[in-house]
Amino acid sequence: MPSYYKSIIRLVFFTILLWGFSTQAQRQEQDAKNQRMMSPSVMDWFKKPDLPGNLQFQGFASQAYIATSDNDVFGNTDNGGSFGFTEVGLNASMQPMPRLQLSAQVLSRRAGNGNSATPRLDFGFADYRLYSHETNQFGIRIGRLKNPFGFYNDTRDVAFTRPSILLPQSIYFDRTRNLGLSADAVHFYADSSHTDLGSIAIQFGLIRPIVKDKDTKASVLPSMAGGDLTSTLSYVGRGIYETNDKRIRLAVSGMWFNVGYDPALNEDLGPGTIQFSPIYFSAEYNAEKWSLTSEYALRHFKIKNFDAPGLNDTSFTGESYYFQGVYRFTPKWEGVLRYDVLYSDRSDRSGKAFAARSGRPAHSRFAKDITVGLRFNVTPSFMLRAEYHRVNGTAWLSRLDNPDPSSTSQHWNLFAVQASYRF
Prior knowledge:
Strand 6 and strand 7 (198-209) form a beta hairpin. The chain has helices at 3-36, 42-46, 177-181, 214-220, 352-358, and strands at residues 56-68, 82-97, 100-111, 120-132, 136-146, 182-194, 198-209, 228-231, 234-242, 248-262, 272-286, 290-305, 314-328, 333-343, 366-377, 382-393, 411-422. The two termini are 42 Å apart. It has a 16-stranded antiparallel beta barrel with strand order 1-2-3-4-5-6-7-9-10-11-12-13-14-15-16-17. It has a single domain, classed as Porin, CATH 2.40.160. 14% of the residues lie in helices and 50% in strands. With 423 residues, the protein is mostly beta strands. The radius of gyration is 22 Å and the shape is globular.
């Protein structure tokens, strides 16, 4: 039997198994509620309001099974599937002073060759409100902070806040996730609300991007590069408008990343710089039963120096967008349908010019993804998901998981199921 069909059989079996677990989880949730009425638990201690400085802890854990017909996503998924996508996080916050809040999160993420599950500081910062009023506030945050762009980047680690197991990869790249996710920064923010007009939140930051991970290096540099990426002063900002009933949400985000390259001793590449300056436009409409979301991005790259053919003083602009609908059948069940498009170079959408110039596949420069998914909220703390992707192109695949672009397939399928827990 071909390995692809074996993967589907395993996926169906795992889905049935999770369904059985969900029934058991519902019974255990009710039993736990009854037990908490009689005795306190460890989770109750974490949520105690009388800890010093209103200290609070929250955490989450997710485990996914992914199978692909071709190509690899978060592990060796095209040969029997893989349980190689795991996310575990613990965060804490406290308020030692009325205007000062301290927050931090440690994250362990296993996702293919680029993420080995080594715990790392996801964010850790001090938030001081310089001015605070009932409807307006202004403040400063210092530390390691999430980069404010789009609708989902701030909370993308927590599966409960995502519309699907995989976020739309045209906007939220997982292969350069650490670069886009957070940075060591100083952010200024201002929030204002009006009883009739709605609310607006503005955030602007001076940052140093995180560029030391293997996935980022493999994504922005040729395979022969033996040196290291270095970060310099960069900028990020976002403005979000919301109506008071949250029915309409509009946002504009932008980043200006400056990354340098320090070559290894005696290597062919010379020192160089890469400027990455995307701008994002986001819109969402929420009704009682359904939500429509779309985001569009223009991603400009400018490469200087390097003293290598194909890298000297080049520039191009990528284009990304998706359209997504979520329908809530019941409070426990919801479905998602999405069309997601990525072009590495909007002036060469087919990738043919790139293929003629480099000898690499044209389909490595674009990706068009149709996603259908289903979510089941077993309890407020436990969730199950399943989704299917039909993909044309490989532009967002990790080069660490797929080191030979010529061996990738242009048309491929992805199946995934995930179990997630939070407290």
